[in-house]
């Protein structure tokens, strides 16, 4: 629709409003029941929000006061500069990427076989499936930072603990996504394999895996992206990566370097985003056709 | 079973030649992919200081840790043990409630901001390229900077307390939901929009009566999903001084109060799983009728 034409139409309709109202009273009548439901729902949401504001001590004056100080900080951040620590920062960034990459890879490798055990069309036994699913839920509901604290006790401070933490929490998430992808897979290929004399393993290998692999690969790429973000903060508990410097520099108010680090993270994440979008298109492309 | 039909030898040779060529190319591609991934993995392992030997040596410590935080509940008097294990239940529940409220308020504020911005960032509703790009970049920054970093900065600006957590969650949610919302808006059926435009509606009226009815159930579903993620995130925001159960949990870990670590972790997992199941049910109900149509 072109702008000029819709403008003209609008003007005509506006001029004719009274007649339209008279001609189609049904369309202009208010639906009272729906409106009452809406008001009750919105009231509940707003009431809970007010309770939260009161309990959490959130108030406009406090926010405005803090905003003023944030403004001062923002001025202190300019211009972003590494102030001679570029080499250290780049090393930390490399560490972060290493954590994200290997963490994602490990979790994908571990989640792959587990996902088949959690899928309805591979393991028909509901009890086994239920147990595996709840196990994955537990792994998933423990946050990466908590996993990092646990692993630091085992392998000591450093990026290795961060890697294990990301791997652990992602096994849960990827396992769930993988098993859902496997369950929604087209079953005709598998039936064909069984009909021509294949065993269950043959059915999985030739009937299921070729169909789900592109989907799984694209999910792994998504997780690599999001893990790059998680890996930037995992340093605040001492598990390596750029977060360690970020925390310390914020604490001592070296805000120019903080701004530089944040810019580095933004650029890195954007670059990974770009690469993985390309890769995803390559992987998904043939399957979509 | 019947025997397979034998092909003529030259035909068989030609077919198997084609097959070998096709699988060979695919196999070479796969091997190349594996080689690239393996190289990257070795580089990443070097960067991340992977020490498998240390892991193998200390894996006993991991199981020992898990055993230590598991409940010290015996079969002799389980109820008393359980009560002793959860000695701090009232205060923990209060802190957990604080975390939940933090996640709720943060999700709500973020969803409102993301809601408003998503219509500006949607290509099919806003003609100005500049406005759209500005909105998209803003959402991207909100989304990419981790909420813990926002929380660290806000703690200095606003002082310790749960309000910091609310703001950090809200900003991150704005970025994440704004993007998802705008993608939903870009995929709507444009005919109602044109119809309303034609009958004289303004931009706001068009959004209210033509766009909202189409996107609202999807928005609510994404919002619930985000709430679930934010509960998990809010639980750890306490690590940097943003209130809630996280602060107590970090103290327990740092002081090696193993039983408390186990108890609080159990509470967090239980809460997250419950919210997970509840939101999933609500989301299925929201999305269900849409797909049935």
UniProtKB/TrEMBL annotation, chain B:
PROSITE patterns: ABC_TM1
Pfam assignment, any one: BPD_transp_1
Domain of life: Bacteria
Keywords carried by this UniProt record: Cell membrane, Membrane, Transmembrane, Transmembrane helix, Transport
Membrane-related topology note: Multi-pass membrane protein
Keyword Cell division included in the entry's annotation: no
Transmembrane segments: 31-48, 101-127, 148-171, 256-278
ABC transmembrane type-1 domain sequence ranges: 96-279
Location relative to the cell: Cell membrane
Keyword Cell membrane: yes
Protein family (similarity comment): Belongs to the binding-protein-dependent transport system permease family.
Name of the featured protein: Phosphonate ABC transporter, permease protein PhnE
Species of the source: Methylobacterium longum
